[in-house]
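_Per-residue structure_
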Amino acid sequence: MKSATDPVENLVQLITCPSVTPAEAGALTALESMLAPLGFSVERPVFSEEGTPDVENLYARRSGNGPHLMFAGHTDVVPVGDEAAWKFPPFSAAIHNGQMYGRGAVDMKGGVACFTAAVARHITKHGSLKGSISFLITGDEEGPSINGTGKLLEWAKAKGESWDAAIVGEPTNPDKLGDMIKIGRRGSLSGTITVNGVQGHAAYPHLADNPVRGLVTLLDSLLYPALDKGTKDFQATNLEVTTMDVGNPAVNVIPAKATATFNIRYNDSWNDETLMAEIHNRLDRAAGRRKLRPGRKSPVNYELTWRDRPSHVFLTHDDKLVGTLTKSVEAVIGRRPQLSTSGGTSDARFIKDYCPVVEFGLVGKTMHMVDERVDIADLETLTQIYERFIEDFLA
């Protein structure tokens, strides 16, 4: 095979594998073929759980005397959507006008390709490592995230692995390379409210109890007032109602029940326990209000269920990790990146329980879109940043 020092060639090999979650589709095999000649020992454990698809993952390590740096990421990608809408076939890795097109180009096969190239260049230059480098790569980041990074970390720890720091190669930059390093993430908590009523004829509301009235009252209590105004390191906590349903196709029937789901992205003013308590308190107070239930004296009959596996808020304070990466970006690009906690969740939420972690990768403007693509020049620049980071961190 060609040298893994070329991030463009690395990315071509990865994109041409149609690894839509949970399919491996050759992506991990391609990565192994890059890492094994560099002296990495490679293992590919498969994890299972009832009700979810089996997922193959990859853990590779090359050992040396010094700090142990983990690079984490994923080779699975989201579906392509309408393939006919793509300018080029989504798994062709076509290059046009200085850009490579393909599903996963920025999210996040591009980051994997660049870090692999950076490691290959470092080893080619020095012949050895002053510390240890491991790749922790899952095929389950874009899916349920049950048989991926979380279990891979547990598996590796059980084998005696430990890490001093980790970098996740997600596309963190909003507009141009070097904009932003993610040093933390908001938590994520989801729930479902079910209001039980009494079905009846819309012309005889006194004989029924419309659950929609109660549901609207409850949701209003969650949306106002705001949960907080934000903190020094995080934007304000935000709750969004994501679905509402009554399961009722008839216009002249009052439904028997109404449900709504919501998602909260929360800052470090809260943890999952205190936030759950706040939501319960708001709903209990609102259930007794009767502004939308004239003549009804009983409280709204509701149930609240929480989704499994909430994501916890975290903030990385490690000066060596954050400082070294910041200086590496400055050295290559000439400007200082913003340190941010914005955006959604990532697999860093699992890694933060094992070692300090930050995220830095490509520009994310086209991730998950039709014609996802990356500037060829950015692949080289990101590789140079990663290479500088490896050099300085292990030193």
